[in-house]
Amino acid sequence: MNWKGVIPAITTNLKADLSVDHAALAEHCRWMIDSGCTGIVCCGSLGEAATLTFDEKIAVVRTAVAAVGERAPVVLGIAALSTSEAVAMAKAAAEAGAQGLMVLPPYVYTSDWREMKAHVSAVIAATPLSCMLYNNPIAYITDFLPEQIAELATEHANLNAVKESSGDVRRITAIRAVCGRRLEILVGMDDAVVEGVYAGAVGWIAGLVNAFPEESVALFDFAARGDKARAMALYTWFLPLLKLDTVPKFVQLIKWVQAEVGRGTPHVRAPRLEIAGDDLELARAVLAKAQKDHPKL
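RESULT FIELD:
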């Protein structure tokens, strides 16, 4: 499992009847890898995991694995209401050909470190697959602190990475301070990628990459090799789009952008609805300016 580079948290392609469009999903996965991405994360928050059934998630994994073959690893986001379901999902993902797991705290229930540790530990221990802990206290309330992450890393040899989405770039330095190089650290917020890379992150679980993969890969590469002038020029252009990944309607917004660039549909499952009104007007303005001012890569 390679936890480095730009790894898209892919959207889940849906037909007009809101069933999963596996043909479009496979094409999308191939486009991501053709554009320089290093892996695929299926069924994360952006992939509408909360509205997909257990069987649908495993089917998405199978489609992604078949689409990219040995060119890149496929990762499944593991989030569930119960620990038993999360463990079963991890095992099913391994059987379906996934090469990694993105491990989240449970939906809805938020508690103390003892219970959250027990939950994620059960998922990590369920298979030998390489695991990435997903820390997103903004969305999931649970905040895995650097010392707690280090504790998990000590106890689980197959915990190899952390997706850091606290919004505090200092967390990357703090994790490095207690874990050294034991874990790979990946940025999980689109509008913090350059700052995260400069702080020591080696990967980016990206969102707008679903519509702009070449630009995303170029931005990460510029930052990773220290080409600050080119990184900041591209980042300045990209930021209004990247900020669409940081608001509650990020799924609808990113899918709409994909549709507008001819790489998907805007269909989402309720309770999400396709964007309209002021949200749509803002998205139109942001995309129009980005297309007008698109820089040469």
